[in-house]
């Protein structure tokens, strides 16, 4: 196992795995959210953020801002999903252009990275894509 830029690389006999679970634990601990309740969705449906939410706070008498609530919710979602989400690099198909007799299938994921208040907020889309890729791979394995 090795760590590079917060990414855990783990090579085993059954495959190679990439994860950010350790980095997620560090972030949760830093913001004292490591013992918080986890949730399955990053944001409630229909929530819209605005630059003017702070001004509206004084009119409605809210004690916290919408932005802070959403940031906490995203951290609670990261807590729920960080241990279960791993990008698996699979292989073992013979090919003339293989590495030691094994051709590797690489899964490439991309997405935008957004920061809010100095913290990463758009990891959600990448996590969802990783889950879809894993489900697709499992289905392909079953049909082979």
UniProtKB/TrEMBL annotation:
The chain crosses the membrane at residues 103-124. It comes from the Eukaryota. The keyword Transmembrane helix applies. Keywords: Membrane, Transmembrane, Transmembrane helix. PANTHER family: OS02G0257200 PROTEIN. This is Mitochondrial protein. It comes from Zingiber officinale.
